[in-house]
Amino acid sequence: MSDEALRERIRQALAFEPSIDELHIGVAVENGVVTLSGHVESYAQKLAAEHTVQRVKGVRGIAQEIEVRAASAKQLADDQIAARALSIIAWDCTVPDGKVQVTVQKGWVTLSGTVDWFYQRDAAERAVRKLSGVIGISNAIEVVPSARAGDIKRRIEEALLRSAQLESSRIQVSVQDNKVTLNGTVNSWIERGAAERAAWSAPGVVDVADRLLVG
Fold first, then answer.
1. 3-state DSSP: the chain helix, strand, coil percent, rounded to 5?
2. Is the distance from CB of 175 to CB of 153 less than 8 angstroms?
3. What is the distance, to the nearest Å, from the Cα of residue 184 to the centroid of all Cα atoms in its chain?
4. pLDDT in tens, 65-97
């Protein structure tokens, strides 16, 4: 597929996604690598644009340069954003009480603290993504290791084997100090994401280095 054909396919995908206002999003493609530019009104839209492009067949990489520019009516002070973030995290039953701290600087939210599982770390970030006024998130929440490397490797390999989305024989898993590295090849960005989610689902994982190649 030519870069121009891929660009047109991406433009159509963005226009078809109802959660995105694509009018101010620029798309450039070079050798299958997509650069997204322009601006959107929320951080949630920025992520939605990236995830939409990842699902387009032929995309080999993405450079995310979209800016978040909230409408003046939706702009909030940092203390208001922090209060809302703490409130929505407290309402999320998957995030343990009192384990996550929030700081905000010029709309950029930083999450810190410690949790037992990656899904709890992820849930805290997901809870904050859709808040008005948020322009970006740094997730510094730590997952406290609770399993040995051998157990982590075995559980991830079993999860990959169970997944109908993956050809697990093409993926190699290595674990050191509770940090997982994925090597090998997958057929699409969807498979790459499924493999990474399988790695994060194992208890005790503190980091995942996704070195899988799409192709």
1. 40, 30, 30
2. yes
3. 21
4. 999 987 765 678 999 999 999 999 999 998 989
